[in-house]
Design brief:
By secondary structure, the chain is an alpha+beta fold. The chain is built from 13 helices and 31 strands. It has a domain of 98 residues. Strands 20, 21, 22, 23 and 24 form a 5-stranded antiparallel β-sheet that branches. Strands 3-31-30-29 form a 4-stranded antiparallel β-sheet. Keywords: Nucleus, Repeat, rRNA processing, WD repeat.
């Protein structure tokens, strides 16, 4: 067998083969290798220091005799057995214990010397460790998503059209489970962008976190409170942005931040329900419920969410045609009162989902006032009809507990019904000089004297409007009228509409009173329209002095002057409604298309930015505001309930 010689390098503690500087330089990487690592592994490129000195020149023995000569001199002190060995085809013999120990010591010295040279001459070759990411980790991930393979190829019959929209290029055919999830999130964000309030809140939180990290002086308790606030914001859908909102919030007088949502009754618009007669939101802010009464004698309950607004219940009452005041929620929110031009009414229990009809002929049949000449004359003009009794149209619950219900009867009578006992019996009646056109419960505004408050039992009163434009202020406790005055510009035969604010009960026809907490001067609103050639609708605005009892204790007093007359509408007023805190007055006329105006109640000026010429309102038939003031529903003659979001109240 041919024997091949192989050189073995022998290291010595005192004089290793070659100098230590050369060995350390030979172990370093050159710039070309470093650039290659940067391209392949992404390691940042760090140029070597003193490249010319640290580069090792390897000389082949066959090329230069000088290298052979020098190498031979360096190996003069080595034995032949340390340099050569006989290759007999078997594995090399294991080194002896002394030789292994000697070799290990030499290697340790070599590494130690290399480390010393590296620390003195050049920086470390590896990049500094990356900073840990501060992103929030997912709470849970499904391991079954990783092996999924979703086809996005157009040629695949199982690929849907929606999946094709997830491709970034036409060459993509298959997506992994993780990538498919990421692109679905991206597509959802494009269709449903993040709301502005969430972006502002997140930017604010990020700014607070950055300031906290830069300062590094906050205590652990404050950091824990901040983290809890962030977690509460990310896990809550409401309440956080309203946390700092107080009852003294004033709406800007010039512009209104309003946004249209999907129609509240979009699920039944194909049924041709006809005109929207009446609208009523649930009195509790946390219950998004809307009752819609339409011309087909159906009363529908919708859950208002701004997207689908599903239909919850449909009540069909063929014998009770709805009017503009047919739907009224009890202040407690547990019952729904349904009335119309009939001498009876229906109550619907929302919890038990049970409908109850009252007895016929309840109003005006058990009182001495029924024999009054004015009542008989008015009843003779209208006719008895097949039902008998008085119809129930204008009514108003007492706003505090709803224990008392005021109902407008014929001949100028206002019947007081004991609703709290559950019997629905008439306990007393108030008499006006002509037919009742509107009712509203209220209390004396702040700033009146003790004598004024004592003149009205408990400070609560009932305001009624007659057909001859006279306003009556009643002390219900003593059953007497404490003041009576005539609306300026009104005359007998005029059709009148009135509105109520947050403290004005639940009836749609009432005198509007704005609480002093919102307005500097509480006001009373009344609207009237004249049936003449001009047919112009006007709205008179009265001050708080119009609500005070008569100074001379007489029922009849001088007529107060209106603070302002609003003339934004050019046709007769048919709808008039305040929002729940009395800052917005909505007035509309169904006689003209898109005849709707929103008035800032504090400055008594109409909002200039809405509605616009392109707002598709149609002929407005009814209006109502939600209990939280963040939604407004508008019904029209085409059977649609337009839903708008008032973003000023939702922030």
């Amino acid at each position: 067998m041919i024997k091949h010689s192989r050189k073995r390098q022998k290291l010595d503690n005192r004089q290793p083969l070659g100098s230590s500087n050369r060995t350390a330089a030979a172990s370093e990487k050159d710039d070309e290798e470093r650039r290659l690592e940067e391209l392949i592994f992404g390691v940042p490129f760090v140029p070597a220091v003193n490249t010319a000195k640290s580069r090792t020149e390897l000389v082949d023995d066959d090329d230069e005799g000088e290298g052979i000569h020098s190498t031979g001199k360096e190996m003069d002190g080595l034995l032949d057995s340390d340099i050569f060995f006989v290759d007999d085809g078997g594995p090399p013999p294991p080194p002896s214990a002394s030789q292994s120990t000697h070799d290990e010591d030499d290697m340790n010295n070599l590494e130690r010397g290399s480390d010393d040279n590296d620390s003195d001459d050049e920086p470390p070759s590896h990049p500094p460790p990356l900073e840990q990411s501060t992103a929030r980790k997912a709470a849970w991930s499904d391991p079954a998503d990783a092996p999924l393979a979703i086809s996005v190829a157009p040629s695949d019959p199982s690929t849907s059209k929606r999946a094709l929209k997830l491709r970034d290029s036409q060459n993509e055919t298959v997506l992994s489970g993780r990538e498919y999830e990421r692109r679905l999130r991206r597509q959802f964000t494009k269709i449903n962008p993040e709301p502005t309030w969430a972006l502002k809140a997140r930017d604010k939180i990020h700014g607070q976190v950055k300031r906290r990290r830069s300062s590094e002086v906050e205590q652990d308790d404050s950091e824990e409170n901040e983290d809890s606030n962030i977690d509460h914001l990310l896990t809550s859908t409401s309440g956080v942005l309203r946390k700092g909102r107080t009852s003294k919030f004033l709406l800007p007088p010039t512009t209104l931040n309003i946004n249209r949502l999907r129609d509240a009754n979009q699920s039944v618009q194909s049924n041709a329900c006809g005109d929207i007669k009446s609208l009523a939101f649930h009195p509790k802010p946390h219950v998004p419920l809307l009752c819609v009464a339409s011309k087909d004698n159906r009363y529908r309950l919708f859950q208002v969410d701004g997207h689908t607004s599903p239909l919850l219940q449909t009540l069909h009452i063929p014998s009770l045609p709805p009017t503009s005041t047919s739907t009224t929620f009890h202040p407690s929110g547990g019952h729904l009162l349904l009335t119309g031009a009939r001498p009876y009414y229906f109550t619907y229990d929302l919890q038990a989902q049970r409908m109850t009809q009252s007895a016929r002929g309840l109003w005006g049949t058990t009182f001495s006032g029924a024999n009054d000449s004015s009542f008989r004359a008015d009843r003779g003009k209208r006719g008895r009809g097949k039902d008998g009794g008085e119809p129930i149209q204008h009514h108003a619950f007492h706003p505090s507990d709803g224990s008392l219900l005021a109902v407008a009867g014929r001949g100028g009578y206002v019947h007081l019904v004991d609703w709290g006992s559950g019997s629905g019996q008439v306990i007393d009646s108030l008499k006006m000089s002509s037919s009742v056109m509107g009712l509203w419960w209220g209390s004396l505004p702040k700033g009146f004297s003790d004598d004024d408050v004592q003149s009205v039992s408990g400070g609560d009163y009932l305001v009624s409007l007659s057909n001859d434009s006279e306003v009556y202020i009643w002390d219900v406790g003593s059953r007497r009228c404490v003041r009576r005055w005539r609306d300026e510009g009104g005359f007998r035969g005029t059709g009148l509409m009135l509105a109520g604010s947050a403290h004005g009960g639940q009836a749609s026809l009432a005198i509007g009173y704005v609480p002093p907490i919102v307005l500097c001067t509480p006001c009373v609103f009344s609207a009237y329209h004249r049936f003449d050639r001009s047919n112009t609708g006007l709205v008179n605005v009265y001050g708080s002095d119009a609500l005070a009892p008569s100074p001379n204790r007489a029922a009849t007093s001088s007529n107060p002057k209106p603070h302002k007359t609003l003339g934004q509408l050019v046709t007769s007023v048919t709808s008039l409604r305040f929002n729940r805190d009395g800052q917005i007055l909505a007035m509309a006329s169904r006689e003209k298309k898109d005849a709707l105006r929103l008035v800032h109640a504090h400055s008594l000026t109409a909002f200039a930015n809405w509605p616009t010429a392109s707002t598709p309102l149609g002929h407005v038939t009814s209006i109502d505001f939600s209990a939280g003031n963040d939604h407004m529903a508008v019904g029209n003659s085409r059977g649609k309930v337009l839903l708008y979001q008032l973003r000023d109240f939702g922030m």
